[in-house]
Amino acid sequence: MTFNYDYTGNRSLLDRPTVAFFASRIVTPAIHEEALQWARLCCTSDRVVMSGFQSPLEKAVFHLLLEARHPVIWGLGRMLYRRYPPEIERALAEERILIFAVRNVRRTGWHTAQIRNFTLATLADEEVYVVNEEGRISTLDVLCRLEEGTKPVRIISQATFRILKDQADVKQYFADKDLSLHN
Q1: Beta strand 6-9 with 97-101: parallel, antiparallel or unpaired?
Q2: Left (φ > 0), alpha (ψ -120 to 50) or beta: where does 20 sit?
Q3: Of 108, 110, 107, 73, nearest to 88 (Cα)?
Q4: Do 155 and 131 meet the contact criterion of CB atoms below 8 Å apart?
Q5: Handedness of CA 144, 2, 16, 75 (dihedral sign)
Q6: Which residues pair with 154 in a beta bridge?
Q7: Which CATH architecture has domain 6-172?
Q8: Backbone angles phi, psi at 23, to 5 degrees
Q9: This prediction's pTM
Q10: What are phi and psi of 98, to 5 degrees?
């Protein structure tokens, strides 16, 4: 896919192995912790994590990755910001982040969020979805089903993930599933 977007930061991050991370706005505390554990595992790998970092869980993963100084790609469903918080400015200065905008609008709306998520999914080598299985089907469920079979796709949900007690369990889970998070 051609990368023809307004951006700031290190575009060469797109040349590295990437994993897109998508999360429902509402998830259980156990699933929230599983996702954070997954993010900690990513910090021991060469994978660049990409996301819109918009839902509460996505924001928590974003801050965890920034604190760990792990490279990230932040897709915006709006135009680029004029100013960034100090931790993002540091990541820009250290070339650990790429920020790009899929649309030239002032606010992220439902439609631009869908375009952003589809763009991130298209750019990524693999994808991880954290979904809330209660209630109606979400657009993340639809995107996940569209992507299955085209690349490695994982779902973190109450039904598919057990609570993992330590890092060894996490690594064993990924090894058992051949989820290719390389060290």
Answers
A1: antiparallel
A2: beta
A3: 73
A4: yes
A5: negative
A6: 128
A7: 3-Layer(aba) Sandwich (3.40)
A8: -140, 140
A9: 0.78
A10: -125, 130
